[in-house]
Amino acid sequence: MPPSSILLPLSLSLCFLLPALAEPLHFDLARRAPAGVHDLNYYAAAAEHLRGKYGLAKSVAIKGRAAADINMVNQVPQPFSVILDTGSSDLWVADSSCTTCTRATPVFNAASSSSLQLSQFGTNIKYGSGEVAGQIGQDVVSMGGFTVQNQTFLAVDTLTDGLLDGRVSGILGLAFSTIASTRSIPFWQTLAASGQLTTPEMGFWMTRVRGDPTAREEEYGGVFTLGGTNTSLYDGDIEFLDMPGRTPTFWLLNLKSITVQGNNVPVTQASALSAIDTGTTLIGGPTKDVQAIYAAIPGSQPVTSMRGFYSFPCTTKPALSLSFGGQSWPINPTDMNLGRLATGSSQCVGGIFDLSLGSNIVSGGGNPNWVVGATFLKNVYSVYRASPPQVGFARLSSAAGGSEGLTAP
Fold it and tell me: In the annotation, is 39 catalytic?
């Protein structure tokens, strides 16, 4: 997931050199640039990023900087806010040598770390809306009370203009090592392998701010639990579903069925592989299935000014549910409505867009055709289990806002 305000639903504090704990930790999340104040250009840019992230669009290339010697001094802990992204696997933070960062960007000062080990190698990490480049290093990295002594990360010295926003310094990838550009073991996987986590699980609850005109630039975003789940945020059992494939990459599930306005919409099973991605806003899918979804919403039509998007009458409250297994999970109509096409327009833009733009690429080698972001994830408590590799969903508790209209498929 790229470090842009478009894709900053979550942030937390990442610090160097803090004591380790064994129990699950619950982190309050912050949500930047709430959806209630976004215009349609925001969502168009989010869609372009998503296409690029999953290999369906060209990236913007940048040239990385060469390796350099760094003097070592006594350790000073340095806190950072980072994006929590189940759709990527690398950890990176902006470095003090960054030539393209804004003045507002909090940066990592390599000269202040006596435990930092910088290699002579650099790499680029590509996102749909650009790239970051820098030098690969290792340091003691902590989040809350969990610590990894020699965590590999990228000290970013160059990035595409506009990728970082506000007080955010980088990304903490929460997918698997097999897709890490730095060829490293992600922070969470090292914690699980070293026995620091009570259970090899991560849980997310995301708040909803879309449609709130009083929402500020930064709002309370929910809770992230590392090493378990937060039982106060969901009711009943968690529906855990096995991930397809032998080697985990992204957090993947097969989309089984879609219900729109009470009617079943067939899902093309050859292209049903879905990435469950906390680091993105929308839901993207293949052409045929997205067309079928909007065909089931009366008055829907393509948006000519936004590639792959559709609109529907603003008076309509789309009733959609997704099923990845035995249960059907409804999406709140508020999450499906991105706002009016223009001031005074009677048409509103939908939160599901055409990710493939007519290509209908059939998944191969674990590449997803669906990307399921916060438009869906705000409606469930989601859990990511490493062993066995599974993704789970549960009904939100009343304390978390509740889940509406849960039905069997």
Answer: no
Cis peptide before 388 (omega within 30 of 0): yes
Instruction: Given the residues 85, 95, 157, 354, select the one marked as catalytic.
Output: 85
Counting every residue written for the chain, the total comes to 409
- 10-residue stretch averages of pLDDT, the chain, 409 residues long: 31 37 60 55 75 61 31 53 90 92 88 89 82 93 88 93 78 94 95 92 86 58 90 96 94 97 93 92 95 97 95 97 95 95 96 78 64 95 96 96 52
Residue of 191, 204, 97, 87 lying closest to 146 (CA atoms): 191
> Buried b vs exposed e over 334-366: b needs ≥16 C-beta within 10 Å?
bbbbbbebeeeeebbbbbbbbbbbeeebebeeb
Written as six digits, the tokens of 404 are 């509406």
Set out the domains of the chain in order of their start, with CATH numbers.
Answer: 5-21+58-197 (2.40.70.10), 202-400 (2.40.70.10)
Report CA 399 to chain centroid distance, whole Å.
Answer: 23
| pTM as predicted | 0.84
Task: Considering the candidates 90, 139, 165, 277, report the single residue annotated as catalytic.
Answer: 277
Active site residue 277: yes
- Residues 32 and 19: their CA atoms lie apart, in Å, by 28
Tokens of 299: 């008055």
Instruction: Name the residue with tokens 């309370």.
Output: 220
The secondary structure of 9-73 as a DSSP string is: S--EEEBSS-----S-EEEEEEEES-GGG--HHHHHHHHHHHHHHTTSSPPPP-PPPPP------
